[in-house]
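Most newcomers find our protein records easier to grasp once they have seen one. To make this concrete, we reproduce a full record directly below:

===
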Amino acid sequence: MREYTLPEWVALSEGVLLDSREGVMYELNEEAEAVLSTIDGSWRTVREIMNELRSDWEFGDEEAAEREISEFLESLVEEGLVVARG
């Protein structure tokens, strides 16, 4: 299973993702911030992320939610803002 984490050059703070290598800030919506907060300092699979968010979120269609979170994280991997392994 693929795991994700934030690299050391990326900081997450109050709705903002900061890429210190590029000097760029990204404003995050509530969902993006929640997902990224689960991988700040930890390696997690999409399933682990969903389990951590379950207390605050209701996933109607588990497969669709898993796919959306995975696609979101993979897009950030492509941008160098998230690191993946596995």
Observations:
- The two ends are 6 Å apart (CA to CA).
- The domain at 3-85 is CATH 3.90.930 (Outer Surface Protein A; domain 3).
